[in-house]
Amino acid sequence: MKRTCLSILLAALSCFSVFAQQKRPNVIIIYADDLGYGDVSCYGAKKIKTPHIDQLAKNGLRFTDAHATSATCTPSRFSILTGVYAWRKKGTGIAPGNAALLIDTAQITLAKIFKQTGYTTSAIGKWHLGLGGKGGPDWNGEIKSGPQELGFDKSYIIPATLDRVPCVIVDNHRVENLDPKDPITVDYHKKTGDWATGKEHPELLTMKSSNGHNNTIINGIGRIGYMTGGKAAIWDDYTLTEKLTSQAESFIAKNKEQPFFMYFASPNIHVPRTPNKKFAGKSGMGPRGDVILEFDWSVGRIMKTLDSLGLTKNTIIVLSSDNGPVVDDGYQDEAEALLNGHQPAGPLRGGKYSAFDGGTRVPFIVSWPSVIKKGTSTALISQVDLVRSFAVFLNQQLNTEQAYDSFDMSSQLLGKSTANRPYLIEDAAGLGIIEDNWKYIEPNNAAAYDSTTKTELGNSKEAQLYNLSADLQERKNLASQYPDKVKSFAQKLQQIKDE
Ligand code: NG6
Ligand code: CA
After folding, report:
1. Which ligand has its closest atom nearest to the C-alpha of 32?
2. What is the pLDDT of residues 191-237, one digit of tens each?
3. Chain centroid to CA 242: how far?
4. Is 80 exceeded by the pLDDT of residue 463?
5. CB distance 270 to ligand 1 below 6 Å
6. Which atom of ligand 1 is nearest the CA belonging to 331?
7. How confident is the model at residue 23 (pLDDT cuts 50, 70, 90)?
8. Positive or negative, the Cα torsion across 274, 277, 279, 285?
9. For the residues 123-152, what does the mean pLDDT come to?
10. CA Rg, the chain, in Å?
11. What phi-psi label fits residue 136: left (phi over 0), alpha (psi between -120 and 50 degrees) or beta?
12. Over 70: is that where the pLDDT of 17 sits?
């Protein structure tokens, strides 16, 4: 379903009046990694306090039914930046650290929308969308294509995840602090060089694996993938958040006079969880809780920077997460033992990797103090909608082929409407679709339960149908009672896949 020209025109006109009155707002997306619906206090967490995120919510709009497009990272990031579902393109699952760039540089992106309108744009933090052309990046040369070829004027990124090699920062097109005499080699199939692996030398580990994570040891932590070289370029796990946050602060300060767009993708709260000493032991929930505090702190730092520069009122902040929560994601960090009754997915079933709502329904807060009325919004909305919504907001024309899956939800983002998205797709092992508070999960052969992460994955060989208004927990499969609904959902899903 595509939006009509009329609706685009109307929305553009309504936003134009907002613009006419003031300078174009700065826009910051703060994107957490694996932060669950129940992990922050403004979404009901009782065992942990996230004062800065809560303050953002208090002065902004807190969405209760907002979704990442996928229950894992790479596909959600693909969608938030392109407005297209990742499952339409092969090879967009969780990417290895040496993957080639997954987004076509000809594609429209969120960054391009802003850049074309004269914004200065940056990507800071976790990337995990591949880098370089076919064959992957040249870590020792110019790393191209990447964020800068997708509309970001500046990028300062970790290539993949905290647990994937290479554990280095890529500053624009180059690895930061790389000594040319000590080149980097990365391999995801076999050992390269003589650096110890977790498998061979578990005695060298400061954080033990609970599953996988037994390839090259970097800073005492076994990672996924093998690397050697680039010693001077290797990040420090315990100060990485601080470093990335400082970059974000500098970018804001440098661009205080002109509109800017910043995609700040925090590596928190993904594994390995290595809180700075300021937060270690502070949550009482072990490293997982401590890195939630660290994430909240970095949100606070960004808010304080805006405040000190007088930018708070005219800056839109969108805070969300790339997928739902996971407790044990492959390291022995006591996350489970120290949960103390905390429910990372809040009232939802499942979590990261899951087709149940815990997989994709995530915190989503929008704040723009000079314009958006504070409150909560029940609107069903997807992160894939940001591209078209901001295009409308900035009066940019997109044809229907661009940002294909993105709907204009600008009125909902501005708090002027709580109308639901007509339907919403969730991507885990199979696809799910939500419409009018009914949810259908297509039958698939994947496991129903993952014993390593202890996640209810929501997969079944049978069709599943849930009434989310009466059964938020997705416990009662009503498929056999409503065969017509199942049929029409299955048809609709097929039609969307075929589009
Ligand atoms: C899994 C990893 C997990 C995490 C995930 C990606 C193992 C056993 N598990 O394969 O630790 O890295 O991939 O997470 O290796 S994501 O948030 O980037 O999608
Ligand atoms: Ca993630």
Report:
1. 2
2. 999 999 999 999 999 999 999 999 999 999 999 999 999 999 999 99
3. 19
4. yes
5. yes
6. 11
7. confident
8. positive
9. 98
10. 22
11. left
12. no
Atom 16 of ligand 1: nearest residue by CA position: 73
Give nearest CA residue, ligand 1 atom 10.
Answer: 94
Cα 179 vs. chain centroid, distance in angstroms?
32
Structure tokens at 199: 């498998």
What distance in angstroms lies between residue 160's CA and the mean position of ligand 2's atoms? Answer: 10
Euclidean distance between CA atoms 210 and 63, whole angstroms: 34
Q: With contact defined as beta carbons under 8 Å apart, do 154 and 169 qualify?
A: no
Q: Nearest 10 degrees: CA dihedral of 276, 224, 197, 202?
A: 60
Ligand 1 center to residue 329 CA distance, Å? 7
Give the span between the Cα atoms of 156 and 171, in whole angstroms.
Answer: 5
Residue 21: what pLDDT? 45
Q: Amino acid identity of 26? A: N
At residue 219, what is the residue type?
Answer: N
Q: Whose CA is nearest to atom 12 of ligand 1?
A: 163
Q: Residue holding tokens 């708070």?
A: 312
Least distant ligand from the CA of 36:
2
**pLDDT tens by residue, 388-398:** 999 999 999 99
- 63: closest CA among 386, 311, 306? 386
Q: Is 366 touching ligand 1 by the criterion CB < 6 Å?
A: no
Is there an atom of ligand 1 within 6 Å of 68 CB? no
Q: Which of 18-27, 38-47, 327-336 has the lowest mean pLDDT?
A: 18-27
* Pocket residue to mutate for ligand 1, from 70, 226, 270, most atoms within 8 A of Cβ: 270
